[in-house]
Design a protein that fits this description.
By secondary structure, this protein is mainly alpha-helical. Helices cover about 75% and strands about 5% of the residues.
Length: about 400
């Protein structure tokens, strides 16, 4: 206990970024960057690399931008290309870090490089940054290091992350348009209700005649907006925040919402195809990298991004661990289409499970592309009809009394 307490109180050693200019063993002038706790450690690290330091300067670097999944995908692709070309690992880190436009990514790469240089395996270096490198990523890196095929594994990882990133961007693009239209329509309606309708109400008060029922309904809604606008906007914003806050922290709510999303008309089919594409792509990548099937399924469980598939994968994993074939275990979950199960069965019999899974992933990724294109063309006329009915209904409600007055005159 005392040892643990002393470890907890031990301050974390702070590292700094340094730029250097020096000469390598061949006498060639070189420049670069590295991270160290001080100038003494930086000089020692450079001496071990055979660099005769001419200039060493601590770099004043800001925090930089945010590291996105796209940055990690690009880094993986660049590192895979470097290693495939025969560039040494540490030199590959230097080249990628210097060429990246995001200072935060360069800083992350230099941290990983320093860890590798001081004796850590590449897997251990990546595991120190779990925010950016998920267990699936680090496990595949570890498998590649042990098998001596790190360049091939990195290439598979880069291909995998590019495919997953493409699917996510397509889903976001399909959902963003209708959500943006709904938000804009709500704001425009609120502005009309709070500012425009009350002006018409003052005009109608001087008519001295009964107003049409539709106009009275709209005026009543406008009065409610004017009186309770703070509650409407505050309640809407608070409700959205509470929903996402609870969704992120409650597994039961995630499971319930994911189950509902899979059954939503039009969008449900798109989400299901996306989940299957990600599931099969992940399993294909891990299995092809030499990870045993049971361990691969453990990494795949959360890859589909849907709690229904997470639970189903855990069930498949437990059955496969007891000797059941993968296709039989998948068939019992009722979340995989018959075509997927049959392709897996053929892959198991032929000994080419990773190839079959990759073909299934390609098929469903194409299905996602086609669904997004069809959905986009379908949503545009639907949104136009909804907006036309909403805004047109308000305009008609406000002009009906004027038409009525004109008929009387």
């Amino acid at each position: 206990m005392a040892t643990a307490a002393a470890t907890a109180r031990k301050p974390q050693i702070k590292e700094f970024d340094y730029t250097y200019v020096g000469q390598d063993r061949a006498g060639k002038t070189i420049r670069g960057e590295l991270r160290a706790t001080g100038e003494a450690q930086a000089n020692a690290m450079l001496r071990r690399q055979g660099v005769k330091v001419a200039e060493l300067k601590r770099q004043r670097r800001g925090r930089g931008g945010k590291i996105t999944e796209k940055d990690i995908t690009l880094f993986t692709r660049q590192l895979a290309t470097m290693l495939k070309s025969g560039v040494p690992l540490l030199q590959a880190f230097d080249i990628v870090a210097k060429g990246h436009g995001n200072p935060a990514v360069s800083k992350l790469i230099y941290q990983i490089r320093t860890d590798v240089e001081t004796g850590s395996s590449l897997k251990q270096a990546f595991e120190k940054h779990p925010v950016y490198f998920e267990p699936l990523y680090t496990n595949l890196i570890g498998a590649g290091e042990q098998a001596g095929i790190l360049d091939n594994v990195l290439e598979r990882l880069a291909h995998y992350k590019e495919k997953i990133l493409a699917i996510k961007s397509k889903i976001k693009a399909a959902l963003f348009y209708p959500i943006a239209i709904v938000v804009v329509a709500f704001i425009i309606t609120a502005v009309i209700m709070i500012f425009v309708i009350p002006a018409f109400k003052q005009v109608f008060a001087n008519f001295g005649a009964d107003l049409p029922a539709l106009t009275l309904v709209v005026i009543s809604i406008s009065d409610f907006f004017v009186q309770w606008w703070w509650l409407i906007f505050g309640g809407t914003a608070g409700g959205i925040w509470f929903f996402f806050y609870t969704w992120k922290r409650s597994v039961k709510m995630q499971h319930a919402m994911d189950r509902i999303l899979l059954r939503v008309p039009v969008f449900g089919a798109l989400i299901r195809k996306s989940a299957i594409a990600r599931w099969t792509r992940t399993l294909s990548t891990t299995f092809a990298a030499g990870v045993p099937l049971v361990e691969a399924l453990d990494s795949v469980a959360g890859a589909a991004g849907n709690q229904e598939y997470f639970v189903a994968t855990k069930r498949v994993q437990s059955e496969v661990a007891t000797g059941t074939s993968l296709n039989s275990a998948m068939q019992g979950t009722d979340v995989f289409p018959n075509m997927v199960v049959q392709m897996v069965a053929i892959g198991e019999e032929a000994g080419s499970l990773d190839t079959m899974l990759s073909k299934v992933a390609d098929y469903y990724e194409q299905e996602v592309d086609d669904s997004v294109a069809a959905l986009s063309s379908l949503m545009e006329p639907m949104i136009m009809v909804v907006l036309g009915t909403l805004i047109g209904g308000l305009v008609i409600a406000m002009y009906l009394p004027i038409f009525k007055l004109g008929a009387v005159v």
